[in-house]
Protein: Reverse transcriptase zinc-binding domain-containing protein
Organism: Zizania palustris
Amino acid sequence: MKLKVFFWLLLQDRLNTKDMLRRRRIITSDVEGCCILCEDNEGETCMHLFIKCRFSVACWARIGIFWPHRDTVIEGVEAIKPRLRMKFSMEIIVTGAWSIWLHRNNCTFRHEIPSINSWLNQFTAALKTQSQRCNPSLRELILEWISNL
Ligand SMILES: [Zn+2]
């Protein structure tokens, strides 16, 4: 449920990213509004954080996902779904994005250092938990996919 709400907010561009906080005038300086996962001084929009950020690109690449160029997250998700040709492609996308968000929160609030391995550990743990809600044959496929990462 938590993940579904998160992903819905992401698609609606309503997550409390720094860009959102700036639009609501909670953050006022440019430096504060920058992405914490890379050193590119990019504003932390949903599009940057989850798809375009160098760190996130490397995370997705680690699990074989390469986002096509689109203007919005929702267009990106629509474009990538048919390309993945997997029964559980949405589980991967939602869990991958959720893990980026958790990692971003840990880096922002607990001063962790961005790490693809930390992201991957978080991602596989969360996907295993998700798989417990699937039917046995799908769960098997997901667990097999994870073991090949
Ligand atoms: Zn970034």
